[in-house]
Structure formats: C-alpha cells, structure tokens
Amino acid sequence: MDHKEGKYKVADLKLASEGQRLIEWAESRMPVLMALREKYAKTKPFKGYRIAGCLHVTKETAVLVKTFVAAGAEVSWSGCNPLSTNDAVAAALVDEGISVFAWHGLSVKEFYWCIEETLKMHPNLTLDDGADLIFTIHKDHPDFAGKFVIGGTEETTTGVHRLRAMAADGALKYPVIAVNDAETKWDFDNVYGTGQSTLDGILRATSVLLAGKNFVVAGYGHCGKGVALRAKGLGANVIVTEVKPTAALKATLEGFRVMKMDDAAKIGDIFVTATGVRDVIVKRHFESMKEGAIVCNTGHYDCELNLNDLARLMKSRREIRDNNEEYVLKNKGRIYVLAQGRLVNLAAAEGHPSEVMDMSFANQFMSQLRLVEFHKKGQKPENTVHDIPPEQDQEIGLLKLSTMGIKIDKLTSAQEKYMNDYSSGT
Ligand code: 3DD
C-alpha cells in the first residue's frame, strides 16, 4: 500500500504508468467530456470549490476527475464499492497530484475510512454513486451542510431512491441533483452500459458459452432490460423474473419467458440479479438449482443474493477463477458465485464502456457546474432531490451525436407553431 497521511492511500503507486495509459484510452472515447474539459479549462469556474467524490475508481471516472481539476476544482476521491477500484487508475490519479483513497478489495471498515479521509478537505460539493458519502455526512458530520457543503449529485438509481426517501422525511440537509434520472444517463448507461458490462464481467469470470444457456435475469428495469437484450444477442434463452406487472408485461412482449424465481431456479444455468432490492435469490432457490449453476448480481449493493443462506448449505468453497467462487454443497451440488455477490460488471470487469459513461459524466459535470453557478449567484435551491433541466439532456445528446458525425433535422418555425397550436385538429 502507498499512503500519505491526508493526501492519498492506494494499492501501489508503481502502477501509475499503466493507469495513465488506461485513462488515455478512455479519454479518446469520451469526446463530450473532453469538449467540456477544453471549454472550462479556460474559465476554471470551479476555482475555489472543493469536490468530494465517492464513485467507482475506473478509467472513466478518472477522466471526469481530471476534467473537474482542469476546470479549477480541488478534488478528493474514494471508491463507492469495495471491489470496483482499478488500482492502476487510482495510482495514476495520485501521480497527477489528486487525492485518492481507494484500493481493490478493501474491507467495509476501510471503505468508510476512505470516505472520512475525503471529508477532511471540507468539501463544498459531493458526488455520489449510491449515496454512501452523503449519508455519512448526514449521519456523522451534520454540521457540514450548514458550514461548507452547497450541494451534491447522485449517479445511480439506488442512491436516488435513498435520497428521495431522505428528502420525503425532511432529512436532506442540502440540494442534490439526480444525475441518474437524466435521459442521457438512465436510457443509455443503465441499458446499454449495464447490458454490455454485466456480460463482460460474467464472461471474464467464467468464459462459459452463453448460447443455448438458460439465462435468468431478476428485474426488468433499465439495467435488467439491457442485460436481457445482450444475453439474447449472444444466443442465451433469457428468462425474466419480476414483481412489477408492467415490467413483466414488457419482458413478455419482448419475447422473454417470464416466471417466478421459484420456477426459474430449477432450470436456470446463469442468474443475474438487477432489482435494487434484497434477498432476490435465497436458500430455497439455491437448494433447487442445477449442478454448476452460476449466480451473480449487477445491482449496486450486494444484498440481492443471500450468500448467508448459501453458506449454510455449503460443505466447502474455494476461488476457482478470479472473481469466481465454487461453493460445494452438502448435497454434493456445486454453485458458482461471481464477484462475491457484488456488482459483477465493475468487480469482474471494467464497468460500462467509455462511450456511454461519456454522457453520464457530462451530466455529472454540468450538474456540479449548475450548483456552483447557483452558489455564485447567491441562489440556494431547496434541500431536496432535483432533476436535471430537460434542455441539458438535449444539449448533451446533440453534442454526442456531433462527435459521432450524425446530423439530425430541426423543426421549422411552422412546425413549432403547429406543435403548440391546440386549435388545429383533423
Ligand atoms: N458505473 C458503471 N460503469 C462505470 C464506469 N466505467 N465508471 C464509473 C462508474 C460506472 C456505475 C455508474 O454508471 C452508475 O450508473 C450506476 O451505478 O448506476
């Protein structure tokens, strides 16, 4: 471990040059964020502002962090999952003088220690993926909201749910922008990003053939939809389980088989949970699984597979491949758990591709900038969860299209008029 008190703690600074190359690779595929970096490096609107981030330390996150720094911000960063930090990327950021407290495989105790270290710089802005940073401020540093913090942003569905619940309770002490709910995040990162990165994680941890396999996806929200789509593309027989009738209907009309987990457990070869709730696969499901079943989770927290239940059924276990644990059951069956039940796309692979994180993180950058601009104007948004302005989505969408060389039509003034003219009927 390389540690400088109050500055950084990462696995190995000697990995910096490898991390630098990974970051350059991501920068070459994140043209929207790089355009924002070029624009705001000139004016440095974040000068004098301190951002504490708690978001997976990946090559894409490093591009976002470097963009904030180029725009004048002081940044201190921790990872938002014990298994998702890329140690080479963390080393490269420290090598650039950025405070990072993150390493792959840290304990839950160390996870919260890292968050506390980022808070020592008394942030004005927080950037979360899962709301663990915001929640730590509210629980252990309630005075921060009145003293230094002017606002925050939240990257993921689970985090936004948590924050909306806090706001409904009147417990949220500063305004937070729900980046997750931006169309240019949710409809792309959650669907196409999760779809590809989850399959990436499964294939890196197993190298199994997907064609012909019974591939069970628990949860048909944006993430589950993406996973089901990509598994189908690789020839798997996709089965969906759900609790929400309309989501189950959508899966059915998309051509996927829909059934209860009790039934899917008996026939599934590979299981992915993407629900955001706990105990989706529990003891009775493990007991009815086929020999050699592979289970994993792509939800934000590791509560969707009840591994305590599985431990009670097991005789022994061993790591048979990286991020792949073989549980030998007392009844002689074997079940394979990927990435210790944590999000398999980031723990066993590199998370979503740079091209899709480009838009998610453009939303992060623009949302943090909005908070700074409010502050500079002396405006204080309400202490609740705010959506991004709809024009931001279209601005980022148009920027992304232009980087892809795609041109689109524009409404004529007559069409604009027609759209708003309720009097014209048949
Ligand atoms: N997430 C997925 N891939 C990521 C990557 N390559 N870098 C940073 C974060 C990444 C998770 C987030 O996109 C967030 O959308 C989530 O957890 O939903």
Structure description:
The chain is of the alpha/beta class and about 425 residues long. It has two domains: about 1-185 and about 350-405, Rossmann fold; about 195-345, Rossmann fold, CATH 3.40.50. The chain has 18 helices and 17 strands. The protein has an eight-stranded mixed sheet, with helices on both faces. Strand 12 (about 270-275), helix 13 (about 285-290) and strand 13 (about 295) form a beta-alpha-beta unit. Helix 5 packs across helix 6, helix 9 (about 185-205) crosses helix 10 and helix 9 crosses helix 16 (about 355-375). It starts with a strand and ends in a 6-residue tail after the last helix. Bound molecules: ligand 3DD. Ligand 3DD binds next to helix 3, helix 9 and helix 16.
Keywords:
single chain; 426 residues; alpha/beta; Rossmann fold; eight-stranded mixed sheet; seven-stranded parallel sheet; binds ligand 3DD
How is the secondary structure organized here?
Elements: E1 2-4, E2 8-10, H1 16-27, H2 31-43, E3 50-54, H3 59-70, E4 74-78, H4 87-95, E5 99-101, H5 108-119, E6 125-128, H6 132-140, H7 144-147, E7 151-154, H8 157-168, E8 176-178, H9 183-206, E9 214-218, H10 222-233, E10 237-241, H11 245-253, E11 257-258, H12 261-267, E12 270-273, H13 283-288, E13 293-297, H14 307-313, E14 314-321, E15 324-329, E16 334-338, H15 344-347, H16 354-376, E17 385-386, H17 390-403, H18 413-420
Helix pairs in contact: 1-3, 1-4, 2-3, 2-16, 3-16, 5-6, 9-10, 9-16, 16-17
Ligand 3DD binds next to helix 3, helix 9 and helix 16.
